[in-house]
Amino acid sequence: MSKIQAKNAAVLSAADTIERPIGRHAPKKPPRAVSGDFSAIADGYIRAATAESTRRNFASDMRHLESHEIFPESPPAAVLEYLAKFAGVHKVGTLERRLVSLHKAAIQKNLPSPVKTLPVQQALAGIRRTHGVRPRRVAPVVKDTLLEMLIVGEQTQNPVVFARDKAILLLAFCGALRRSEACALNVSDLRFLDGGMDVLIRRSKTDADGHGYTIFIPKAKGNRCPVVAVTEWLEKGQITEGPVFRAVSRSDRVLPGALSAQSVALIVKRSAARIGANAEDFSGHSLRAGFCTEASTAGLANWQIRAVSRHVNDVHLAAYVRPISNKTPSLL
């Protein structure tokens, strides 16, 4: 073999080696699409990454969209027509949430999201400017309203159900609890002390990983004390373990299982209706807003309020302080 032939053979051999790389230099295979074919345990962990309410909203959004022939595969033009049809009919926040669900559904199928296209984003911005995004703010249950609810409730409700409602109203107010936090409380989360009660919030909206947070609920004078109210409810309900707040039958019998978050909202609405207020102005969040409003009116510093409400900053806290009356003095 001549020198030229030997060189050509070497070049061809090197080229063959380059075309057929081995070991760590081999190119990575393209990732497979997520099939969703997981074991029950793996699927359970995937589902646990989002709250149950988030999964419910996602399923509800997709049912609505599909009923109007909007799918993850739909082109942006179809999504634009959907927005044009329902803008001004449904709240801006509702439309935005549905498009977020549509985007997630497209990502799950490894499809390009029609939501992220420029025309759809421009249409959403136009809807916001045209119809506004001011959120609904429920009325706060301040101290006077709360006490009136308790007086009327004691006169009109059965003893056991009133004991439960009284404990929920007072504890959720004094602890600035979300309705989901009140429902999730177990007897083991309560620690009764001489001057009050420690309440462990194991998990919350802003603590999805479950680091936990303990709130101290001080005792109050007379029959408005939240600690006494919780104690009386546990005694009347004969509850020694498990969920603190439970359903009560029409015959005034305590049922097993935790109370639902929606039931807390209904308790607040019914209590408002009994005192002649408009029930539609109130919700489960009214108790949390009521604490923040009352504490601010009483002159507590923001850091003191946030130690109970667990707001991450003063901006978020300010949204919960409702103006009861205009106390800004005149500068003239």
UniProtKB/TrEMBL annotation:
<dbReference type="InterPro" id="IPR052925">
    <property type="entry name" value="Phage_Integrase-like_Recomb"/>
</dbReference>
<keyword id="KW-0233">DNA recombination</keyword>
<dbReference type="GO" id="GO:0006310">
    <property type="term" value="P:DNA recombination"/>
</dbReference>
<dbReference type="InterPro" id="IPR011010">
    <property type="entry name" value="DNA_brk_join_enz"/>
</dbReference>
<dbReference type="GO" id="GO:0015074">
    <property type="term" value="P:DNA integration"/>
</dbReference>
<dbReference type="InterPro" id="IPR002104">
    <property type="entry name" value="Integrase_catalytic"/>
</dbReference>
<protein>
    <recommendedName>
        <fullName>Tyr recombinase domain-containing protein</fullName>
    </recommendedName>
</protein>
<keyword id="KW-0238">DNA-binding</keyword>
<dbReference type="Pfam" id="PF00589">
    <property type="entry name" value="Phage_integrase"/>
</dbReference>
<dbReference type="GO" id="GO:0003677">
    <property type="term" value="F:DNA binding"/>
</dbReference>
<feature type="domain" description="Tyr recombinase">
    <location>
        <begin position="136"/>
        <end position="332"/>
    </location>
</feature>
<dbReference type="InterPro" id="IPR013762">
    <property type="entry name" value="Integrase-like_cat_sf"/>
</dbReference>
<dbReference type="InterPro" id="IPR010998">
    <property type="entry name" value="Integrase_recombinase_N"/>
</dbReference>
